[in-house]
Design a protein that fits this description.
This protein is α+β, with helices and mostly antiparallel strands. The chain is built from seven helices and 13 strands. Helix 1 crosses helix 3. Bound molecules: 2-oxoadipic acid and magnesium ion.
Length: 261
Amino acid sequence: MREYNVTNLATYLNNAELTKQEIFKITNDYPELTNEQAYDIQHEIVRIKSQSGDRVIGLKMGLTSISKMKQMGINDPLYGHLFDYMMIDDQGEISISDLIHPKAEAEIAFIMGKDLAGEDLDEETILDAIKFVVPAIEIVDSRYENFNFTLKDVIADNCSSSRLILGSRFINPKGLELDLLGATLAINNEIIDSGTGAAVLGHPLKPVIVLAKLLSKRGLKINAGSLILTGGITKAHNFREGDMVCVRIENLGEVSFKTIK
Ligand code: OOG
Ligand code: MG
């Protein structure tokens, strides 16, 4: 077994993303890895990327819906970091040759108007801190072979973060029943999956409560101005070159991208 070294493991994962190569799970070599150590590796990736000029624009929650938990075989939500280079314009293009084995999921995103920190925040406090709600597509692209991993592996791999697309309408969430909003995911105009806001831990504000709690364990907070993805409402779906992927969320609008080689 190789000696455990946070920087080496973070570099191993970051290089897999940069070179678009699948890698072996890190728990193959480090079966005793703890969640905390896995987050140490993720935060080290953030340090390495920041040092090379990438900027953190927000955070994402993953595995917050039953659909996603079942699909990946993991029942615990986790967070990841989102960077400026991951953002694609609405109706923009994604080059699949830039990615390993990407999949798309329908999500509800928030733009924060205030900082948030705490172990046990209530929904009212979260709602008060949110400036806008936006429909989103997240592209996950696990760096691991066959998109297969344990919770510790995916925490270390920055929660499979790869690309994201936000809709063009930014809406004030107050007065909206976010849990009741219907969402669809279509590929080439054919709806292949659907769900409601309630899919993510019962209400889209709930993943933000969990995020604040996970961050507070490390003495961190959610920052005003940052973007938060609340987790896939639908399962994640493969797409191919030439496909157009579109997510529509009731009352929030739609967001789409096209794929090129
Ligand atoms: C892990 C990331 C999960 C979500 O929305 O549930 C995620 C993965 O499935 O690769 O982004
Ligand atoms: Mg996601």
